[in-house]
Amino acid sequence: MSANAPVRVNVVLKMHHPDELAQVAEQVRTHARSPLTDHDLATRYLPNHADAMRVYNYLHANGFSDIHVSKDNLIVTASGTAVDVQAAFKTRLYSLHRGKQAGIANADAVSIPSSLSDVIAAVHGLRSFQERGVSGAKMAATAQGKVTWKGQGAPGTQSTAGVVACRECVHAPTDFPSLYGANNLAPANNQVVAVIGVGDQSNTNYLYQTWASHYGFGFIPLDVIYPTGYTPGDYEAQTEAALDVDAVATMTGGLQQIALYSAPSTNLDDELTAVTAAINDDRSTISLSFAATCDSDIGQDLRNSWDQELSAAVAKGITVFAITQDDGGYPGCSNNESSTGFPGSSPYVVSVGASTLYNTVDSYTTYDHETLWTSSESGPAATEGRPNYQNAVANIVGNMRSTPDFVMDGDPNSGLWIVTGGYDSSGTYQTEWAVYGGTSLAAPLLAGTYARLLQSGVAPNFWQQSFYDIGVGQVNQTSGDCLTCYHLLTGGSNGAYSVVPGQFNQASGWGSWNAGALATGMALQH
């Protein structure tokens, strides 16, 4: 790279007592103790502000500017140049291109100065070619006639009475809460859901309002936050944000607020800064629809940085829903094996894949069954061992963390109508209706449903252990209060894994949620 080429780095600081914090997180998710308060976390585990300022001052002295320190003092973000990086961390940077993929890579190992070796855990932002997340949103292939439309006029206008035109249908947002049992619960009016976005979100409110007004939805306040800045005019992820916000609103029936935390790029370290900001603001529910398609290709230092922050989230009782990605069972990883997405492979998230949803022959709003969407990624994590909550299905998953935990609808052919937008050649902003699916639909559908569960009185804890206990009880028919909590998938394959009906699967986890029944089951579990 040229000496003055711009580079943004995210310097991650070391936590105190990380092994102990992991144990606390395990106790919280098994309900053996209450979640930590922010004071508890800061006093015992987080780096202090003085340490963060040592890193700040070092970066500033080496030419970096626009420096941000996260609220928890764990991440210091700074903008500089390739020559600044070489001066501060003794590594040369190269610009790489392969087909449509582009990014940077460091030619030398990062050298952390000895004066800060007690503070700095890792320096990220120097391997964007390999460690870049992508959106899991997929547009329906309407031009090839693969989508069965629900109505010929405005989206979602056809009656649900009588014989329907299709069973694998594109759905209006008014359908999904009924299909997944969320209408059996009160709207999540006192909850806030955080959505992780990327880039300039100045048009997202307008797109959301246009979509909501069409369906007569009460408008949920949308707060856009840029924790580490953004590039005006960077609309790369505008459609992803519209899909996420619309899907969350679809399932909740109402919210106190949707908080959209937008990162400056899809680089996984930049996305970590946005997730960190949401965790620091104590958002109990977070939806993340960006992921690298092959977790096996992600450096261990970046995995550790994510797990460090996510373990703090679990210890605080915060639940993150993260996608597995959309490239099927064999997504072209460097080891040429099946793989799953990152950070959806972390044991500290609810990992979300995608299904194909079928309604009954007489109603668009009545659930019939689901199969695995062929492009849904799944499988064992590359380096994350099997967490304790998966011990009950160890004979299926083996020794590694299995993904996904759940699926929701993500097949674009049974996807969601949204409003997208963009600027034409004259600079005029134009909007249009489109149908989207992908795991990027599944994760916010699940997050929105979870907010409704919280509103029903379910405690805001990381519910992984209870999720698995409920699934085992349903499959073994030993939990009479929750025999219909999950929709176990009936079939389907992504090329690497196939659904075995009636049980937990490597392909689809526990299937999807029947929200009303699940709320009762979770309350009794607690």
Which sheet architecture does the biggest sheet show? 8 strands, mixed
Q: Label the overall shape.
A: globular
Helix and strand content put the structural class at: alpha/beta
The helix content, as a percent range, equals: 25-40%
> What fraction strand?
25-35%
Overall mean pLDDT stands at 91
* Helical run tally: 13
Beta strands, count: 23
Unreliable stretches, pLDDT < 50, 5 or more residues? 151-159
Q: What is the C-alpha radius of gyration, as a whole number of Å?
A: 22 Å
Distance between the termini: 55 Å
Describe this entry's structure for a reader.
Pfam families: Peptidase_S8, Pro-kuma_activ. Keywords: Calcium, Hydrolase, Metal-binding, Protease, Serine protease, Zymogen. The active site is at 240 (charge relay system), 244 (charge relay system), 440 (charge relay system). This is Sedolisin. Its cofactor is Ca(2+). With 526 residues, this protein is of the alpha/beta class. The protein has 13 helices and 23 strands. Strands 9, 10, 11, 12, 14, 15, 16 and 19 form an eight-stranded mixed beta sheet that branches. It has a four-stranded antiparallel beta sheet with strand order 2-3-1-6, with helices on both faces. Strands 8-21-20 form a three-stranded antiparallel beta sheet. A hairpin with a 5-residue loop joins strand 20 (416-423) and strand 21. Helix 6 runs parallel beside helix 7. The longest helix has 17 residues, at 439-455. It is globular, with a radius of gyration of 22 Å. Mean pLDDT is 91; it is low at 151-159.
